[in-house]
Amino acid sequence: MKGVAETEGYVAKSARTATKTSTPVAETAQPVSIVSRKQLDDRQPQNVTEAISYIPGVRGGQFGAEPRFDSFKIRGIDLTYTGVFRDGLRQISSPNGLFRIEPYGVEALTVLRGPAASIYGASSSGGIVDIISKRPTEEQLREVELQYGSYGRKQAAFDFSGPVTDDGVLLYRLTGVVRDGRNEIEAIKDDRLMIVPALTWQPDDGTTFTLLGEYMDSTTGGTWGYINNYGPGGTSIGATPVYGGDARFNDFDQEQWRIGYELEHALGDHLTLHHKLRYSELSNRQEWVFEDFPGLSLEDNRGVAADTYLETEFDTGNARHRLIGGIDYSFMEYEARQGSGPDLFTDTYTYVPTLTYYEKQRQSSIGLYIQDQIEIDAWRIGMGLRHDWHSSEYTPGGTAYSRDDSETTGRASVGYVTPWNIMPYVSYGTSYVANPGVILSFGSGASQAEPTRGTQYEIGLKYEIPDHNVLISTAFFNIDQENASVYETSSGVNLLRQLDLRSRGVELEITATLDNGLSLTGGYSYNDVEITKLTPETVGNQHNSSPYHMFSLWADYEVQTGALEGLGVGAGVRYVGSSFGDNVHTPVLENGARTFVDAAIRYDLGKITPEMEGVKLQVNATNLLDEINQVCTTGFCYFDEGRKVIASMRYRF
């Protein structure tokens, strides 16, 4: 994908996510992983968590088969609310209002590990995941796809793109999905209707304007989880196989839409204006029942995200500079209404809980930033500095809180590109996130949360093998993070607190796409996530549901010649090491190590006869061996997602 996330097969070549410039990934002093469209087509992931599951340092599945949100950690730090971006702009979210992402509408996912606040502002110290939308193409594309899979899944999708005018000045793309399905728990739906239009206008070589839209209406289950057994102090001692919800009152409906644009315009030979803006809204209605106790939650959020910067190149002596400077702005407001009721069941479940609790919040931030990338012979030097102003007005249950924060973040790095295409580097970066919510602080009442701040040191090495499409990278990192908002259950009571931690570890990643039809991606990570402040009994412990060791490898082979030409097979293994199920390390809640096997097979029928040109059949399986174990997180226990098989037929014409 030119300009935004360029790849060759599985291998990342350049990406704007790390620096907001088209910098080669092999010369970027920070780990950058791109899940390309080819990899998405080969593996057929059904959500963001599955899509990034083969990237080192990524931990998903801590809530089992959680269908409501894309929940995952990077480098032991949760990114669910603070690390998801869309096309380089912050994805607006609220406590129960996270935008749902359909992988069929995605061109690529770029995962940037480590702080990125110096150019993005408020974001996680673990990194960001940038969702790259499908954009109009200059070549004509016409595709329809049908799927059928586990739990009665039925899906139809289409993707049309190409020039509107003969001269290619105007391009279009229209992508759509309709799905009817269920989860492995029968009471949980997996229904979706999505339509994604896009239009590009490029009147000359120096100007590109792209309009990006989306409408999605989706339904999943409002209750997620199994009934747990409880011991002394009210803490869980394990999950039972009994679902905690009820199919009669369990829909989690969400309607969302977004509209935005991107403009790139050359103001001169070495000066380019970049400007993008997006407005988004969502409304949801969540019905839930847990152990015969029903509840209802309604939430609406809306927001704007915008970014404008200038990019220029110039020389000072033998130093080549690529300088950007810009300003971005984001605004979010949400309203939530909640209520729960007594045990009132009927055959049709006509009872609806009364909404008795109300909260709202408005957050806005504006940031100024500057970044210089300097090349001096084989040296690659990066420096970035940013200052943000953030304001928040939060009213939970009628009590108003407000605060204003002013934060400065930065990043610096040095790398050296050797004649053998090896680049060692060192980097330093800081981050911050302004937390919504109220912290229960014993002895001093309640107050709005302090911002989460982070500092990272990193040493790494990248190796792009000459004359081969292979990229190998490794990194050692140390992150110190303070004041992360978490729920702590060690006392038997679920309290919102602020956590300090130290995350340090090593990552190794390899991606390759070779001329013989073999593609692979995989990696290993060791991650020690130590609690440095929370409660006296947890300090010094490994943070819950954070494995020390994780390993993954996916390999795909497509036969190039002979009688089997057009046949493709893929297989993958994902190892998740042992971890603790709560922060006090209760022995009965410990999560044992587990290994998941995935597989795929496909065939291009056009290789048999010209009449079938463009038809491809494919079958994908995740957790093929149906490895299911208990997994506990924050003191509550779930089960791993079981085997899932999806068959698809695609026709391109």
Automatic annotation (TrEMBL):
Cell compartments where the protein resides: Cell outer membrane
Coiled-coil region: none
UniProt entry keywords in alphabetical sequence: Cell outer membrane, Ion transport, Iron, Iron transport, Membrane, Receptor, Signal, TonB box, Transmembrane, Transmembrane beta strand, Transport
PROSITE patterns (alphabetical): TONB_DEPENDENT_REC_3 (PS52016)
Membrane topology of the entry: Multi-pass membrane protein
Domain TonB-dependent receptor-like beta-barrel: start-end pairs: 200-624
Location of the TonB-dependent receptor plug domain: 25-128
Region described as Disordered: spans on this chain: 1-29
Family: Belongs to the TonB-dependent receptor family.
Cross-referenced PANTHER family: FERRICHROME IRON RECEPTOR-RELATED, FERRICHROME OUTER MEMBRANE TRANSPORTER_PHAGE RECEPTOR
Protein known as: Iron complex outermembrane receptor protein
Organism: Pseudorhizobium tarimense
Species lineage: Bacteria, Pseudomonadati, Pseudomonadota, Alphaproteobacteria, Hyphomicrobiales
